[in-house]
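Design a sequence for this backbone.
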């Protein structure tokens, strides 16, 4: 680097010949990028990641990400802020920043396809590096405050990479509900088969549809599937309206099975009259039951209190 300095400042080869530049790192940034296959995947996941990072990460967590511990002699602020950023000519994005004094770690979506975790170091003295030092006339190796010299760039990289890895490990606890949410979206929209009439959509929080899903999710159907008669027997113990005539009941359940089949919730077992719940059916119907039995009552109670 001294060669470049001599090109910029010719006096280093003449009047300032004994002197040299001391190269420092004013600010170090190190990012870890996660590239998604589609914008929809990242768009659905980012809100949950932002919510988790702002509500769940404490000051102790932020310090731990940066390799520090909270103690009684710590002087400074640990802040977390969330911001939506819309740059001219670019997609709307969001970023969350966790700041410890002049250093921080942040997460944001970039170009709609990349989730970036980035650690920024402005005050390296908050960290440590192991190097040879002189103590009382003796040379020894100790952990000492990190300096800004470019010779320590390797340590900057180690600190930032470890910080990004810890942050990603903490975010890994967030469940990705995207498949189930998309499944719920798909069953709430009427469909028209290629060779048939429009099929009525389902309502995930309606009692009748919930009871139908509960009957289909019965564990006794897991091994060998179920028949029209099996489903009729289950539905007779619910509030799903069925005719008193056996033939009419069979026709009603056949139409229900056709409706479920159009939405991909059930599949026909080959060379038999039996049906089984599909993999997507298990995911979608379990999400629907959980929505009605767990989340919807609590949301309704919160709304009633607010009113």
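Sequence:
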């Amino acid at each position: 680097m001294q060669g470049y300095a001599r090109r910029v400042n010719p006096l280093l080869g003449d009047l300032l010949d004994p002197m040299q530049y001391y190269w420092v790192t004013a600010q170090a940034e190190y990012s870890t990028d996660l590239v998604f296959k589609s914008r929809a995947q990242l768009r659905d996941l980012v809100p949950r990641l932002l919510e988790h990072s702002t509500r769940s990460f404490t000051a102790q967590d932020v310090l731990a990400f940066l390799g520090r511990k909270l103690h009684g002699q710590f002087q400074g602020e640990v802040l977390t802020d969330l911001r939506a950023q819309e740059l001219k000519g670019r997609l709307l994005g969001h970023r969350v920043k966790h700041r410890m004094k002049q250093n921080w770690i942040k997460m944001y979506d970039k170009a709609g396809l990349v989730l970036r975790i980035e650690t920024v170091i402005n005050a390296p003295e908050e960290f440590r590096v192991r190097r040879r030092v002189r103590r009382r006339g003796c040379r020894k190796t100790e952990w000492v405050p990190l300096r800004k010299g470019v010779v320590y760039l390797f340590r900057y990289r180690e600190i930032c990479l470890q910080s990004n890895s810890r942050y990603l490990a903490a975010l890994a606890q967030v469940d990705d509900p995207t498949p189930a949410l998309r499944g719920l979206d798909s069953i709430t929209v009427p469909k028209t088969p290629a060779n048939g009439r429009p099929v009525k959509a389902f309502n995930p929080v309606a009692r009748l549809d919930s009871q139908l899903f509960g009957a289909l999710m019965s564990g006794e159907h897991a091994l060998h599937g179920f028949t029209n008669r099996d489903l009729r027997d289950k539905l007779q113990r619910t509030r799903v309206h069925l005719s008193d005539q056996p033939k009419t009941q069979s026709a009603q359940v056949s139409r229900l099975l056709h409706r479920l089949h159009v939405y991909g919730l059930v599949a026909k077992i080959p060379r038999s009259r039996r049906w089984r719940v599909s993999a997507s059916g298990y995911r979608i119907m379990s999400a629907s039951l959980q929505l009605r039995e767990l989340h919807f009552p609590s949301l309704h109670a919160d709304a009633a209190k607010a009113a």
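The longest helix spans residues 279-306.
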